[in-house]
Amino acid sequence: MAVPPPMSSADSALPGPSPLSSQVHAAAVNGDKSTLQKLITADPALRDSVDGFGRTPLMYCVLADRLDCAEALLKAGASVNQRDASHRTALHLAAQKHSVLFLKPLFWISLIPALSWVLRLLRGGARRPRALSQDVLDKGVSIRESGL
């Protein structure tokens, strides 16, 4: 049996998920809420870190039915609209699993950017319904991407 050659310094410079990213994903999938909170408190960017599949800790909470960890991530500001390498969000994964536990909260949280946009549009002045509907048609699906 051949032994693989040792890694060179060039091999160790290959891009990949950071060790902390792996820890935060492991904490999410294993339901280790205290470790998860420690990690995202120390480095808030970890709440949306991605692994080799483009999955976030929130996505792993959905896949493993870890509602308590998902709540901690959402309270810390984790993105519900981030997509993995297969272009699926946490909401898509919940629907795919038929996980009623996650569908309702993720659905409503994912609507917040669109609802905020509609409220800002309505507060922006007296808009007639026709002008409002035209703005919605003009904005189309880009409402979510624009962050409005």
Automatic annotation (TrEMBL):
ANK repeat ranges, renumbered to this chain:
53-85
SMART domains listed in its UniProt record: ANK
The protein's matches in SUPFAM superfamilies, at most eight in alphabetical order, are given as: Ankyrin repeat (SSF48403)
InterPro entries hit by this protein? Ankyrin_rpt, Ankyrin_rpt-contain_sf
Q: Which UniProt keywords apply?
A: ANK repeat, Repeat
- Disordered, as annotated region: 1-22
Pfam families recorded: Ank_2
PANTHER family in the record: ANKYRIN REPEAT FAMILY A, CHROMOSOME UNDETERMINED SCAFFOLD_25, WHOLE GENOME SHOTGUN SEQUENCE
Q: What is this protein called?
A: Uncharacterized protein
Task: Write down the species.
Answer: Coilia grayii
